[in-house]
């Protein structure tokens, strides 16, 4: 394993904690985190398209999602194509598990 991947391993736990916080906040906001249309609306600032347009939690959720996406983007640059492919597989497994739980 190269030094870049070793340095990223502790960050994986921090990203997992951020994802968990996002998941809980999304539930409080009434947003299904797997609903791409809702997430796009949230990130675009189109709060009127969301279930409770006046929720102050939307700003926090939007900020946390933006942070997660930026961290993942910079991490993908650091880990290279092999690490990115592994991350993509893990992401697919998480989405599949979430979909099965909500089915």
Major β-sheet annotation: none
Strand content: under 5%
First-residue to last-residue Cα separation: 37 Å
SSE sequence, one letter per element:
HHH
Give the overall form: globular
Radius of gyration: 15 Å
Task: Tell me the count of domains.
Answer: 1
Mean pLDDT: 77
Low-confidence stretches: 1-8
- Helix percent band: over 70%
Quickly give the structural class. Answer: mainly alpha
Number of helix segments? 3
Tally of DSSP β-strands? 0
Layout of SSEs?
Blueprint: H1 3-29, H2 36-44, H3 57-101
Helix pairs in contact: 1-3
Structure notes:
By secondary structure, the protein is mainly alpha-helical. The chain has one domain (3-101). Helices cover 79% and strands 0% of the residues. It has three helices and no strands. It is globular, with a radius of gyration of 15 Å. The N and C termini lie far apart (37 Å).
Features:
103 residues, 3 helices, disordered N terminus
How would you summarize this macromolecular structure in one to three sentences?
By secondary structure, the protein is mostly helical.
């Amino acid at each position: 394993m190269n030094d870049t991947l070793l340095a990223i391993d502790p960050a994986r736990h921090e990203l997992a904690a951020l994802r968990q916080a996002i998941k809980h906040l999304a539930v409080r906001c009434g947003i299904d985190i797997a609903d791409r249309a809702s997430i796009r609306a949230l990130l675009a600032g189109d709060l009127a398209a969301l279930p409770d347009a006046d929720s102050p939690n939307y700003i926090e959720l939007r900020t946390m999602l933006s942070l997660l996406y930026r961290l993942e983007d910079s991490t993908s640059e650091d880990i290279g194509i092999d690490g990115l492919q592994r991350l993509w597989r893990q992401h697919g497994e998480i989405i599949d598990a979430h979909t099965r739980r909500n089915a």
